[in-house]
Amino acid sequence: MFNTKVIAFLGICLFTCALKAQTIQLFNSSFEGEPNDAITPIGWLGCEDGTTPDIMPGPWGVYLPAYQGQSYMGLIVRKNGTWECVGQRLTQSMRAGSCMFFKIKLAHALTYNGYNKSCILRVWGGSERCDKKQKLYESPVINHADWRSYTIRFKPKQDMDFLIFEAFFDKRNGVTYNGNLLLDDISVIQTCDKAELELTDK
Q1: What is the per-residue pLDDT across 9-34, written as a single tens digit (0 to 9) for each?
Q2: Cβ atoms of 76 and 60 closer than 8 Å
Q3: Is 184 helix (H, G, I), strand (E, B) or coil?
Q4: What does the angle CA 110 – CA 57 – CA 81 come to, to the nearest 5 degrees?
Q5: Number of C-beta neighbours around residue 54 at 10 A
Q6: Which pTM was predicted?
Q7: CB 189 within 8 A of CB 26
Q8: Cα 81 to Cα 83: distance, rounded to the nearest angstrom
Q9: 184 Cβ partners below 8 Å, 6+ apart?
């Protein structure tokens, strides 16, 4: 039989682990809305001048079905050196030093009204509205026309209350260009466990 001290110790450990665990749900995490061009999905804010995201499918000749729900979001980068990004204030702070992760579905439209080249996703965290305090993630070039799952892991260097998703240029080309990125189905943000740390992206 277990010693009462051992049982008490295990109880304290479980209670401490529960306190450390954290789950954050983003609002409208699958970018639901009436498909239209130059419309920011409900719950999201434009965080770069000239940000006019599109709710898909339908506009600009993009007809890929949504992965989750009825719609998703398209962001573009432009030859003039500008790009689009959106952000959202979190319902609770991501704690400094915590290992956090979430998943997102990404794709690229082969035709997007001339904004047809591939680009990357950058994810930023900050303490204020549209604050890019720390770059949390940078994806490989998203050049596939089907939805694929990406697992984003990071450790905030300070408590963070705002999260930003940004389409950006593949700098290996050394130039700016017209390109697009499609986003859908962001999972809850949660603390890592051992299994998640060992997970390989699909």
Answers
A1: 434 333 334 435 679 999 999 999 99
A2: no
A3: strand
A4: 55
A5: 29
A6: 0.86
A7: yes
A8: 7
A9: 30, 31, 66, 67, 68, 69, 72, 73, 104, 105, 106, 107, 147
